[in-house]
Design goal:
heterodimer; A: 387 residues; alpha/beta; four-stranded antiparallel β-sheet; 14 helices; 43% helix; B: 513 residues; mainly alpha; 20 helices; 69% helix; 0% strand; globular
Chain lengths: 387, 513
């Protein structure tokens, strides 16, 4: 064997080993990340196969009971339960609340528990069922749970965002796909089978699969792992709602208080209307879909049989409005008109506006581009129209 | 299809490599090439299948034109060929730009429907124009059609370059050269690809969070603070560099996996000591194209004219240096996109080059023994000036309008004041100033102290052909890649971190609203 060939064979051995190491280690590491994300599952979005449930972990029903009966709410120190699980259960929990609020993140601060009560002329008390990224599909799911409530609220407040009148703007509701289908059947939305038209299970499963190897989810899993998977709950003591605590807090009525860190950073940050997340979930040109409005109308008509229904629009920051060429501004103008049009046809009361000037909210009464503080939310009823 | 996607990493690439290996192993050379062409068309069509027709049509047109030119080299057919290519490019890339400008100039209101720009059209058009020109000049020969198709469509360089030259590429597709997978190439290729992927997904995408808000705000008339403006400009400089050089590294790495050497496109441009050197290290394949096919021909013919007419030194400067430089950089700017700020970017660099040439002329007039000797301090000053000049030009490159660019530049020059309280207020920089500064410092350390991909890995690879100017970079680096277990584990970790960063924000975390 010549020296060249010998050298080549030796080289090849090294290269083969090197490639094997890269490929094997890569797959081992990826599988480890996926396994940790699945097993720890901070938001509890994966099914429980192969998972052991710790005996000290509270069931959702226990959690909801403790939340509603708590004096000052629960500190969301760790990832206790998936957010949608919490509020789906809260929706079905019998309370004396007069109103239930359906919405997304800007509505999470609507509260009857805080000293600055929101919607106080409309509701003496409320439960807040808004969830982050809450889409119209989430509202349908939450309503299905409300309908099972033995002591349901009398009024349903539907908080409408500039992107609510579209389907498929957030996949998270799909964990309650069956409840969605049940509700769709109840509202007898039947030119077509509801389950067929809105079945996005594939995209949800793909999203779950991708999430298994998501760095951000992995960091949360590691956080939880370092805290030894401590999901025990911590009751909040009496605290200043304007300052918050080390973590966000869910108040007994389901409304949320941001963490102290978030509140402080929002005070420091200058809202310019351009560089934030104001265009969140807005797709230029697709301001609303006729199909969604058709279902939305059916949904409201169904609710009206048993509840009083109120539409609420929560304002965006003044600076966002200053840049009128932004997609979100067009969306707000078009959707607000559409909401009034629907309200008029269904004889629904409308509270608030996307425009902060109409409500008299000041710039200081916002955390960021699209999340007003409680002070601004108390002014929502400054603008109300009953059709 | 993007390199930084699950479908590419977990399906397309392994399947393409496997098919290539199986066909190559059995010695089916034409089938192997056919497989790569088919895979490349699939890769291109993933984005929009309709544009496969454009790509295939372009290859057919140019192959036919080259056939005519080979048999009868004449200017008419060459012009026809070039016009055909430029016509498609102008229609897809520049039509709206021209119409908008005509509307402004003539106060018209011609409305053209929005034309979607096909991916990579600038790259495959320029590659084929080069081929036609060389065919006309008798510098190329007739190639096999299938091999020609691979030259045009080869997926690693199809979408974002580097711009490849037929003389370098075609011999690599020949029988006996393009064969089955080789472990050495695969190892070097995968490693280069991982470096590129990491640059793009981890470095560029994270730094982008700190650049974009500042530019958006300036675009809408906000006066950034002095520190915000510098923060945004530096963040964008590094974002663009890591993004583009990352993409180029991925392309080179992918080519290497198949045993094909693509040109290296970046050679530590931020270590360069003058602007001329910078352009020999930044987007090298474009610089070479512009230099060989625009600058040299114009400069040569104008210099001849100056010498014939005896126009003296000023004549040589104006016609031999200034005019061809500005002309070449005008087109280099416009090549990046149909907008005036790209033209301005090109012209600014043209001006830099002209100033540099004047400087060299002045230096050359000083007797050698009286010149300041090059040392670490002069090198540092050279690097600092070059880097700063590039940052200012990239502000113009990034801004969507001239107003937006001048807004940031004014703040960078302190024309809106320099305040040391509330240094960062806008966007992510405002919320996380320490993180933003940390990213910028990390980027500075990487671009200044780490070897580039060529120094680190490609010089060790037998297949790699040095297409850049190797003398610009010290090749004896302390940190060198070797196929050892340690490096294997290191790159497996880098690949994992990159892949788990693909999807960015988790849509399942409750605070991700």
């Amino acid at each position: 064997m010549s020296n060249d060939i010998k050298n080549n064979l030796t080289d090849n051995k090294f290269f083969l080993l090197y490639l094997k190491i890269i490929i094997c280690f890569f797959f081992v590491l990826i599988l480890t990340v996926a396994l940790i994300n699945y097993k720890i599952d901070p938001e509890k979005v994966y099914p429980n196969y192969f998972k052991s449930i710790k005996s000290e972990e509270l069931s959702l029903i226990d959690f909801t009971e403790k939340l509603v009966q708590s004096d000052n709410g629960i500190v969301m120190k760790n990832y206790i339960w998936n957010e949608r699980d919490i509020f789906y259960n809260l929706a079905g929990y019998p309370t004396d609340a007069e109103c239930a609020v359906l919405g997304s993140s800007p509505a999470t601060q609507i509260s009857s528990f805080r000293s600055n009560k929101s919607l106080s002329k409309t509701c003496s008390s409320l439960i807040n069922l808004a969830v982050n990224g809450g889409a119209f599909e989430d509202y349908i799911v939450m309503t299905e749970s409300i309908l099972q409530n033995k002591n349901p609220p009398k009024t349903i407040i539907i908080s409408i965002t500039p992107w609510t009148l579209n389907f498929n703007r957030d996949p998270r509701w799909l964990q309650y796909k069956e409840n969605f289908t049940t509700m769709m059947n109840k509202i007898q939305y039947n030119p077509y089978s509801a389950s067929k038209r809105f079945d996005k299970t594939d995209s949800y499963n793909i999203a779950l699969l991708k999430n298994l190897i998501n760095l951000e989810y992995f960091m949360s899993s590691m956080d939880l792992l370092i805290s030894k998977n401590d999901r025990s709950i911590e009751f909040a003591n009496d605290f200043n709602h304007n300052l918050g605590l080390s973590h966000s807090v869910v108040l007994p009525d389901g409304s949320r208080i941001n963490s102290n860190e978030y509140i402080k950073s929002s005070l420091k940050r200058k809202v310019d209307g351009i560089s934030g997340h104001q265009n969140y979930k807005i797709i230029p040109g697709k301001w609303y879909s006729e199909n969604t409005i058709e279902v939305f109308t059916q949904f409201v008509l169904y609710l009206k049989k048993n509840f009083k229904v109120v539409f609420v629009m929560i304002p965006y920051h003044h600076e966002v409005w200053n840049f009128s060429e932004q997609p979100v501004v067009t969306a707000m103008k078009i959707v607000e008109l559409k909401v009034h049009e629907i309200a008029k046809s269904l004889k629904i009361q409308v509270i608030g506006s996307f425009d902060p000037k109409k409500i008299n909210c000041t710039s200081e009464e916002f955390y960021d581009e699209r999340h007003p503080k409680d002070l601004c939310l108390t002014k929502l009823e400054n603008v109300h129209l009953s059709y | 299809m993007l390199y930084n996607s699950y479908i590419f990493i977990f399906l397309f690439l392994p399947i393409t490599l496997l098919g290539f290996h199986l066909l190559g192993k059995k010695g089916h050379h034409r089938l192997t090439i056919g497989w790569l062409v088919a895979a490349s068309l699939f890769f291109y069509g993933w984005w929009n299948p309709i544009y496969i027709a454009l790509l295939v049509g372009s290859a057919l047109f140019n192959y036919a034109a080259s056939f005519v030119l080979l048999n009868k080299p004449n200017k008419f057919f060459l012009s026809l060929g070039i016009l055909g290519n430029l016509g498609a490019l102008v229609y897809f890339k520049y039509a709206n730009f021209f119409v908008d400008n005509i509307n402004i100039l003539l106060d018209n209101n011609i409305i053209l429907e929005q034309i979607i720009l096909p991916l990579g059209i600038s790259f495959f058009t320029f590659q084929q124009i080069t081929y036609l020109v060389d065919t006309y000049l008798g510098k190329s020969k007739e190639y096999d059609f299938l091999q020609y198709c691979l030259f045009v469509t080869f997926f690693p360089q199809l979408i974002a370059g580097p711009i490849v030259h037929h003389k370098r590429m075609m011999p690599q597709f020949a029988k006996g050269v393009l064969e089955k997978l080789k472990l050495e190439n695969l190892a070097a290729g995968i490693t280069t690809f991982i470096i590129g992927l990491f640059k793009k997904v981890v470095l560029a995408d994270n730094i982008a969070f700190f650049a974009t808000p500042g530019f958006n705000a300036a675009e809408h008339g906000f006066n950034l603070t002095f520190f915000e403006a510098w923060g945004a400009a530096l963040a964008y400089t590094f974002q663009l560099y890591f993004d583009f050089s990352g993409y180029s590294d991925m392309a080179v790495g992918l080519g290497l996996m198949f045993g094909i050497a693509l040109p290296i496109n970046f050679l530590s441009p931020f270590k360069t000591k003058n602007i001329s050197e910078f352009w020999r290290c930044w987007h090298i394949s474009l610089s070479k194209f512009i230099r060989d096919y625009l600058y040299y021909p114009i400069s040569l013919s104008l210099t001849r004219y100056v010498l014939n007419k005896n126009l003296g030194n000023i004549g040589i400067f104006i016609l031999g240096i200034f005019t061809p430089t500005m002309f070449a950089f005008f087109w280099a700017g416009l090549w990046h996109g149909p907008a005036w700020h790209f033209v301005l970017f090109g012209l600014l660099h043209g001006t830099y080059i002209v100033i540099y040439n004047i400087w060299i002329k002045i230096i050359s007039m000083i007797p050698e023994d009286k010149r300041i000797k090059k040392n670490n301090i002069t090198n540092f000053i050279g690097r600092f000036i070059t880097f700063t000049a590039v940052i200012f030009s990239l502000v113009i490159f990034r801004a969507e309008t001239i107003d937006g660019a001048s807004n940031i530049i004014e703040s960078m020059l302190g024309m809106n004041g320099i305040e040391f309280t509330d240094m960062f207020q806008i966007g992510v920089f405002g919320a996380l100033p320490k993180t933003g500064i940390a990213w910028i410092i990390l980027s500075l350390l990487i671009v200044n102290f780490l070897p580039n991909t060529q120094q680190f890995i490609l010089n060790q690879s037998k297949v790699f052909i040095n297409w850049g100017d190797a003398t610009l970079n010290e090749l004896n680096q302390k940190i060198k890649w070797k196929p050892t277990s340690y490096w294997g584990i290191f790159f497996a970790i880098m690949l994992t971190v990159s892949v788990i960063s693909f999807s960015g924000t988790s849509e399942f975390l409750y605070f991700s609203f």
